[in-house]
Amino acid sequence: MSFATTLSDARVVAAMIGGAVVAGGWVVTHLLSAARDRAARAERVRDVQGALYAEIRVHVATLKGQSLPVYGAEMEAMILKADGFFPVIPTEQNDRLFGAIVENIHVLPFRVVDPVVQYYNQLATIGTMIADLRALDLARVGPQRAARMYRHYIEMKIEAIDLGEEAMAFLLAHLTGGNAAVAELSDSRQKTRLAETKAGVTAWIQTERSRLSAANIPASGRSGQ
What we know:
Elements lengths: L2 H6 L1 H56 L2 H14 L14 H6 L8 H25 L3 H79 L2 H6 L1
Helix pairs in contact: 2-6, 3-6, 5-6
């Protein structure tokens, strides 16, 4: 039977049409399923970011309201002056949402995950420091060392503010502008850090040049002036 004869058979044509319809249905189903998966993933990403942003924002606002530099200096002075005094340090739990969704953190872009993880890693380090301070034997370590440890604890909390604000900036950038906004923010932050590093190195070089120039002036020349 020739190909033309085959095509003239209504049953064959009907079978071919039916097969094309089935194949087309598979393609459409796959495309719809992929679209649903992408939408579900995007929604999951938004949910994760929104939850993290809210948790970080609340904690950072609390830290800012504590006037940490002033409070830390006051407590350090009291540790040094008041015999046997050491402030009560409560246990902190500011990472409950993060702990609940950490298994889904991989759904976030790397440039967003990195600052978020740095912030929560700082909280974990602060938690370890709190445990050490609460177990501190003041009589054994003495007020000087105890005051230094407490100052370091306050400095860690101040650093958590900066890390939290950076994490929030990246989360908000991705929530409002997607990957393009995150890339722009990352490039901007990188340029700022490079400029700050360059300025610091330049200032250090100038200071060293001045110091070396002053050191090289002969003693007789200085006395003659």
